[in-house]
Amino acid sequence: MKVRTAVFPVAGLGTRLLPATKSMPKEMVTLIDRPLIQYAVEEVIAAGVERVVFVSARSKRALEDHFDRTPELEYQLQDSGKTEVLAEMQRLSSMCDITYVRQKNPLGLGHAVLCAKDVVGKEPFAVILPDDIIMSKKPVTAQLIDNYNKTGKSVVSLMEVPNEDTSKYGIVKLGAEEGSGLYELDGMVEKPKENPPSNMAIIGRYILTPDVMEALEHTPRGAGGEIQLTDAILDVAVKQGVYGYLFEGKRFDCGNMNGLFEAVVHFALERPDLREHAINVLKGASKLY
Ligand code: G1P
User: By the 8 A CB rule, do 60 and 151 touch?
Assistant: First the structure.
């Protein structure tokens, strides 16, 4: 069945980016000239997703506005002949259907995904954590969908992380390799404090079958006292198998300052309109410091 819907849990407060996120949703923090959320939404659309669900909370209005029409701005751009910018604004507001649901209690990532159950229906769906911005030739969501189409089972994105960082992630136990970079998963644990099963971490891109939603209904609170998505996926892995895919691409954790800064540098260097300027700035700076 086609993956038509992507769920974006966007209710989090973004305390790691304070003070930038004091009065602005963390998903609206800019990476060069567009907010993080736009990169993530464009990624899923490029992968053929038709419907986006934002699981949101109070004080996240800016996200809705960003993907809405802005008639005053459009008139002004038209009047001043800025047709390219106008076309870009119109593309942004007509990019996809967005549904908003509220996560009324901050009970964790698993709970946030469960809030989208009725909108998703009994279909496979993507989950996208927009703090994780991934630079790749082929959108990571599309890479995962290819593997979902091969296996018919849930597929999570995987990346190797340093041993000392395993307590920050969902960590998997790899099983048999089924294809290039595609592994059956023999287990997974959310933010292991000790004895991580490997150093392969789950990154914020998932294609999940509807039974993960069902599992979430019965998932008790886990790590950090929260309902964890990893625990529900493990439940499905034990009963019918789940896959992990070592994606092609470079991931930036834009939910913290170091990752965000790194992303700015790399994205500027990859953009034809900014590359030369970025190189000159970096060369100049390296002479000064
Ligand atoms: C979430 C997931 C975790 C995953 C991580 C990837 O954790 O719970 O399994 O490894 O995203 O970024 P969070 O970073 O939201 O605490």
Answer: no
**What pLDDT shows up at residue 207?**
98
Q: Number of structural domains, the chain?
A: 1
Residue 27 lies in a domain: yes
Ligand 1: residues with CB < 6 A are 109, 129, 132, 169-170, 190, 201-204, 229-230
> CA-CA distance, 57 to 13, in Å (whole number)?
9
Residue 131 alpha carbon, nearest atom of ligand 1: 12
Is 154 in contact with 148 (CB distance < 8 Å)? Answer: yes
Q: Which of 260, 154, 238, 239 is nearest to 202 (CA)?
A: 154
What residues make up the domain containing 241? 5-255
Mean pLDDT of 239-251: 97
Q: What is the CATH number of the domain that holds 62?
A: 3.90.550.10
202 and 243 Cβ atoms separated by less than 8 Å: no
The per-residue pLDDT for range 32-67, each reduced to its tens digit, is 999 999 999 999 999 999 999 999 998 899 999 999
Nearest CA to ligand 1 atom 13: 169
Which residues, in sequence order, are CB contacts of 90 under 8 Å at separation 6+? 74
